[in-house]
Sequence to fold (102 residues):
Amino acid sequence: MATGPRESGVLEVEKQKVKPPPLYKVLLLNDDYTPMDFVVGVLQSFFSMTREQATQVMLKVHREGMGVCGVFPKDVAATKVEQVVSHARQHQHPLQCVMEET
Fold:
């Protein structure tokens, strides 16, 4: 048997920095046909806003042309956009919902 020096069996853990996934803003766009109450309902249903919060966002959409509904990871944002657009179409409203990287 050889009795020479042995290498240490200790492995050093290499720390990797993982950056968080990019976030996306979900935006509602203004149109002249979708009722304000419908927009408030969408914000309450799909973005868990209180009636007061939803009304504030709806007024921002109405006055400024767009409003932020929330900021989410890409897959969540895409799902929210699809849900809102589908719901609006089911109720025959042209409401537009889009996402944009922050």
